[in-house]
Amino acid sequence: MVPEEQKMKLLVIGSGGREHALVWKLAQSPLVKEIYAAPGNAGISTLATCVDIMPENIEGLAKYAEREKIDLTVVGPEVPLCKGIVDLFEERSLRIFGPNRAAAELEGSKAFCKEVLRRAGIPTPNFRVFDQAEPAFNYAQTTKYPLVVKADGLAGGKGAVICHTKEEALETIDQMMKQKVFGAAGEKVVLEEFVSGVESSVMALTDGKTILQLETVQDYKRIYDGNRGPNTGGMGAYSPAPVASDREYDRVIREILVPMVHTLNSEHRRFKGLLYAGIMFTKSGPKVLEFNVRFGDPETQPIMMRLKSDLVPLLTATIDGTLEEAAENMEWDERAASCVVLTSGGYPGKYESGYEISGLDTLDQAIAFHAGTEKKEDGFVTSGGRVLGVTCLGKDLSDARTQTYKELEKVSFRGMHFRKDIGERSHPK
Fold first, then answer.
1. Which residues pair with 191 in a beta bridge?
2. pLDDT tens digits, 79-92
3. 285 has pLDDT over 50
4. Rounded mean pLDDT, 175-179
5. pTM flag (> 0.90)
6. CB neighbours (10 Å) of residue 241?
7. According to DSSP H, which parts of 189-274 are helical?
8. Whether 323 and 344 share a structural domain
9. In Å, how far are 86, 172, 180 from 273, measured between CA atoms?
10. What are the CA-CA distances from residue 202 to residues 92, 227, 386 (Å)?
11. Which pLDDT tens digit goes with each residue over 245-282?
């Protein structure tokens, strides 16, 4: 038993399904006394006290953490990390999980990320960076296709477009650089060689010395079955991801994560937190498509379902530089987990919200992690594009998938959309 006076007050920053999964897992720790969430969501409010402070308001969050004597803050989304929330908290001697601003630039700027990859000698598709539209148009006229056009800055997971024709590329560049559909994020673009293979998300904790890989996971970014349609924030995920061999995943650690951490350290950008590599396993080996600097969404949902160990010591060890010792106690459920995201009709474009959600109280094998919901007197209504992530464990991937789809049939709201191929091992990439 942990004495009451030694238990911790936690603050989780964010409002999505990822944060609900983190709060759900943290709430199971005997080390935790209270959890606060800023701003949280309707699902999170059943486990934590929600505080009306937005993730972008890093000064307000720091003041709150000081006032409430928060022992540990866990940052969910990328925006506060890129704004320097970790630097601000550390200046005030507040413990916080996540990389500082200099290290977070790895996600904050795709151009910066690609240049670091080049300096570190890490395999990545060939690319060119442009900060003016006309040279980008000229390059798009002469290069081979397909071509990937990426907004440099943060675009909520929607800033990468695979263009199959010159016309598509020219239109996409125009939208990003001239029409500014992603605002300042599209002032600079990365034009990248298209590579084929099987994609997987590799997430690892690192304290700047030790790299501790979490269980393998694969997410689905496109809105429609068969990976068709525009990119979204994520339509589902499953773990473990049998898309590559253990040997290939070991290569990712050895040839990608280790040199990335070493290179950042050498450039005075020591990385402490969650390092997330989007990997394409090609015929010539693994290549990095992107790096993120926080837990993935919806990858976190099945990962937290499978993590048997207490999450709190792993986070504090990452902060303290003692991850090597903590790693010995990390334990995983051998069962598989599957998460299917339910979205509002029209997402990732325009969608309507405020529709009643029925059936949540009938789920008995699944956990519905809330993303875009609001609590009303008589239940929940939709309030966002991604609404819920229905997540199940199963004895294997096939069983987890079957259970998840069986359970989500109990849930409904007007315009509800979901992919029907999450967890199919043979889906096209």
1. 128, 149
2. 999 999 999 999 99
3. yes
4. 95
5. yes
6. 24
7. 246-252, 258-266
8. no
9. 10, 33, 32
10. 32, 20, 23
11. 888 999 999 999 999 999 999 999 999 999 999 999 99
Q: Which amino acid is at 395?
A: K
**Averaged over 391-403, what is the pLDDT?**
97
Enter the DSSP assignment of 47: T
Q: Considering its fold, how many domains does the chain have in total?
A: 4
Asked if residue 291 and residue 227 are part of one domain, the reply reads yes
Give the pLDDT score at 429: 40
Q: What is the DSSP letter of 143?
A: S
Please give the C-alpha separations between residue 348 and each of 73, 159, 171, 342, in angstroms, as whole numbers: 30, 12, 19, 12
Average pLDDT, the chain: 95
pLDDT > 70 in the chain, percent: 99
Which range marks the domain in which residue 217 is found?
196-329
pLDDT of 425 reads 61
Residues in the chain: 429
24-30 contact pairs (CB < 8 A, 24+): 24/304, 24/367, 24/369, 25/304, 25/307, 25/311, 26/74, 26/311, 26/312, 28/310, 29/310, 29/311, 29/312, 30/1, 30/2, 30/310
| Number of neighbours of residue 190 by Cβ within 10 angstroms | 23
- Rounded mean pLDDT, 371-381: 94
pLDDT above 90: residue 347: yes
Q: According to the model, what pLDDT value does residue 5 have?
A: 78
Q: What is the CATH number of the domain that holds 151?
A: 3.30.1490.20
Distance from the first to the final alpha carbon of the chain: 48
Q: List C-alpha distances in Å: 100 to 77, 105, 411.
A: 13, 9, 40
In sequence order, what are the beta bridge partners of 381? Answer: 356, 374
| Cα separation, 421 vs 197, whole angstroms | 18
Q: Which of 27, 398, 62, 33 is nearest to 240 (CA)?
A: 398
CATH number at residue 87: 3.40.50.20
Taking the CA atoms of the chain, what radius of gyration do you get in angstroms? Answer: 21
Query: Which pLDDT band holds residue 424 (cuts at 50, 70, 90)?
Result: confident
**Residue 146 one-letter amino acid:** P
Element housing 23 (H / E): helix 17-26
CB 240 within 8 Å of CB 401: no
Non-local CB neighbours of 298 within 8 Å, separated by 6+ positions: 17, 18, 219, 234, 235, 236, 237, 339, 341, 369, 389
Q: Evaluate whether residue 118 is within a structural domain.
A: no
Measuring CA to CA, which residue among 325, 318, 213 is closest to residue 258?
213
> For residue 180, which phi and psi values (nearest 5 degrees)?
55, 50
